[in-house]
Amino acid sequence: MKKLLLPLLALSALATPALAQTGTTQNPNRIDGYGAPVSPSVPVSRAADETTIDIIGGYYQQTGSHGAVEGGRGTQQLTDVPPAIIVNVPLDTVSRLSVNVGADFYASASTDRIDFALSTPSAHDVRIHGDFGYSREQKAKGTIWGVGTGVSKEYDYLSFNVAGSFAKTSQDGNRQLSLAGQVFFDQVTLITPIELREPGNGRGKSQYGTDTRQTYNFTATYSQVLTKRLQAAISTELVSQNGLLSTPFHRVYFRDNPAQNTVPTLSDNFIPRFPTAARIENLPRARFKYPVSLRLNYYASDLVQIRGFYRFYNDNFGVVAHTFELELPVKITPFFVAYPFYRYHTQTAAKYFAPFAQHSINDTYYTSDYDLAALSANKVGLGLRYSPVYGIGRFHVPGKNAQGLPRVMRFKSLDVRYANYQQTGSSIYLAADRADLKANIISFDLGFAL
């Protein structure tokens, strides 16, 4: 039921190979109102013959006053703790296995309003996820291909996915074309607000129906080393979704609904009830997203790098968005890097969005979810990375290596990152109807090698 994202660990490393840094585009981030959650990512600056383990964690906290559960009015308070472990294992000199498993422990004041009874089980939930991949490199041909699968589960949501990828690098190593596809098969339990349930339908999960959604992602990226100091990558991330795209526990209130609100009166601290009845959010069952992005990396000196990113986003819901991002990694010492970053995002509203109680009952589709509102957002933060050549420390683990010696685990790197995020609603709305979400995110990555 979580309404927002996973914290973000877009970790950087100056030692990363040139094409590896520009070969992928940044994932869309639901905190900016579109796309899918960002998954934790592992730094790629690791030796190819090492087994690497990254322990990732963080804390995310947000506040706001336009929760979609209460029709665009009400708390958006949410906290999330998302630990994860990412393991990469070389099977031989050309193939690797990867495993990414983790969980999200979150508390959401907004989803607690589904049944208007505070501190119910809907206030807390856990999402568990696991992704598994296999890749094989043919160095003579300059190609890498991979396959993968994954699963994600929470109380009202079950998702499976399969993925495939292919990359071709030129003989001189200056150009690379990468293609990737992923298909998600989701099943959603139709938990609706308490006053909109069918008579006799209580709170038991087995009493709700289900619906499905399929998501098809295709990413194509072309990257090139333009000069000794400048690299560029252009990419597109096409997305097609079919099935249930609305959220069944999101209320929408109308300015002209003659039906009376039948929500039971409770002795709680909720805002006053709107006099007329709500309906369940209703959105089309097909959505197409077609963004394009450009990434530039410029090595200003041996100590300073400039990373720029721009993304244009459009979809058939009417959302048009622009995202700019700038990151400035600075090498303080040979092993210590600080990388301040800034991200600006602006978007128009979906044609199906209206603030609280401003839809008409004659509308075919309607939502008051502020992910689809017109807004701008700023995210600013700082990351610190410490990665000495011989590691931070080492310790023995069970087992022996190929030479019969005790196996040694090395603590290779430490990354810590903080970001502050703030939304500002568009002036096309009244002041009380403008987005006001604020969030703080702190995350870390402990990198080990075996």
Break the fold down into its secondary structure elements and pairings.
Elements: H1 18-22, E1 52-63, E2 78-81, E3 84-90, E4 95-108, E5 124-138, E6 143-154, E7 157-169, E8 175-189, E9 210-225, E10 230-243, E11 251-253, E12 278-280, E13 286-289, E14 292-299, E15 305-314, E16 320-327, E17 330-333, E18 336-347, E19 375-386, E20 393-400, E21 406-425, E22 438-449
Antiparallel strand pairs: 1-2, 1-3, 1-22, 2-4, 3-4, 4-5, 5-6, 6-7, 7-8, 8-9, 9-10, 10-13, 10-14, 11-12, 14-15, 15-16, 16-18, 17-18, 18-19, 19-21, 20-21, 21-22
Describe it for me?
It is a single chain. This protein is an all-beta fold. Helices cover about 0% and strands about 50% of the residues. It has one helix at about 20; strands at about 50-65, 80, 85-90, 95-110, 125-140, 145-155, 155-170, 175-190, 210-225, 230-245, 250-255, 280, 285-290, 290-300, 305-315, 320-325, 330-335, 335-345, 375-385, 395-400, 405-425, 440-450.
